[in-house]
Amino acid sequence: MQTMGKLLLTLVTPVFIVVGLHCGIGMPDIDQRTDLLLHRSIITHSPLIPLILLLLALRIGFGLHAFAIGVSIGFAVHHAFDLFPTGWAGYALISIPFYGWTPPLFSWIWIAFTTLICAYLAARLVRGRLDRLWYLLGFIYIFILTVPKEGAWFGPVVALVVAVIVLARTVLFRRAQTEA
Ligand SMILES: [Zn+2]
Fold first, then answer.
1. Residue 114 · residue 45 · CB < 8 Å
2. How confident is the model at residue 47 (pLDDT cuts 50, 70, 90)?
3. Residues 113, 115, 120, 123: what is their CA dihedral angle, to the nearest 10 degrees?
4. Distance in Å, CA 7 to ligand 1 centroid
5. Cβ neighbours around 99 below 10 Å, total
6. Which domain, by its residues, includes 125?
7. What is the CA(180)–ligand 1 centre distance, in A?
8. Which of 9, 119, 121, 162 could cysteine-pair with 72, CB 3.0–4.6 Å?
9. How remote is the CA of residue 77 from the centroid of ligand 1, in Å?
């Protein structure tokens, strides 16, 4: 029975990750659909939603775990693209409720920070060799799907590779050592 459960979990994990990826990639821009938030709001363009999901996943587990990995990767890739706008003005800037848009330097640092933290949150949920494979494939999959909708791709690739290398040397591999 336990083996059946494990097999089922192995089969559904990539499905939940893909669903999470598709939700996460567009989620930060829901600020555009509200009357309350200015675009690139610090509330949706932040690790807040992935963090809430991570905490829920750690409590509930199962499908939510894989879904949270997908959403967090989606957020990281979204922000990697937001890090390279055509210019640092207007909607490219991070906005704070009741304050307005923040200066370009703050916006850049905030978006870079969010990219790294969201990739980190996804890495925190990774357990085992197969999860690590899904983690890397998740980045590649959603990145390839997003490129045609965005202009620049080189900068986002560099940002994501740097983030994943930093995390591979810390979170991902350290966990691999404790598993061994
Ligand atoms: Zn955005």
1. yes
2. very high
3. 180
4. 37
5. 9
6. 2-179
7. 39
8. 121
9. 10
What residues have CB less than 8 Å from 4, skipping those under 6 apart? none
Task: Tell me the CA–centroid distance for residue 39 and ligand 1, in Å.
Answer: 8
Tokens at 96, concatenated: 């704070």
Residue 10 alpha carbon to ligand 1 centre in Å: 32
* Number of domains forming the structure of the chain: 1
| For residues 48-59, average pLDDT | 95
How many residues are recorded in the chain? Answer: 180
Compute, in angstroms, the gap from residue 137 CA to the centroid of ligand 1: 22
Helices (H), the chain: 2-26, 48-60, 63-82, 104-125, 128-146, 154-167, 173-179
Output the pTM of the full model: 0.92
